[in-house]
Amino acid sequence: MNYIEIIGFSAATLTTAAFLPQVYKTWKTKDVSGLSLPMLVMFFVGIFLWLVYGIYIKSPSMISANTITIVSAFLLMYFKMKYEKR
Amino acid sequence: MNYIEIIGFSAATLTTAAFLPQVYKTWKTKDVSGLSLPMLVMFFVGIFLWLVYGIYIKSPSMISANTITIVSAFLLMYFKMKYEKR
Q1: Least CA distance to A52: which residue of chain B?
Q2: What is the DSSP letter of B84?
């Protein structure tokens, strides 16, 4: 692995890890009042496009980071829709 | 501008825009109780490393997105430190 991919993977680890506490907190508390569905959808589509970009430019760190983050974004959208009505 | 940079700039617009309501809300309400400083610092450092990565691989969309997002992340850290003690 070359030098720049080490920077990329460090970036990927930090930015994906920063989302996990939010996913955990929302799952545990079922409190979705502070989450905005339009924003989550925008974010999800944005991350999907970054994933397409990463695949196109063949960036291992971008592909890894965005694959993990798209799962986090999907879970937050799912929790928002599931718990909103209760 | 080539095809893949259009995808990149669409991704950049969506993921940076998804942060602005959080910055605005925190600025208006001064409510930083839901924000975690260690997470904000991790996120800030992560975005800084993505910016370095974007500059290195000469990606215009990654440079733009991460420059704007690093300002958002910095503002959230600043608000957290400024309003925490009040």
Answers
A1: B7
A2: T
A43 and A73 Cβ atoms separated by less than 8 Å: yes
Residue boundaries of the structural domains of chain A: 3-83
ipTM: 0.87
Nearest to A18 among B7, B43, B57 (CB): B43
CATH code, A3-83: 1.20.1280.290
Cβ partners under 8 Å of residue B64, min gap 6 = B9, B12
pLDDT in tens, chain B (86 residues): 689 999 999 999 999 998 888 898 889 989 888 788 889 999 999 999 999 999 999 999 999 999 999 999 999 999 999 998 65
CB neighbours of residue A10 within 10 Å: 17
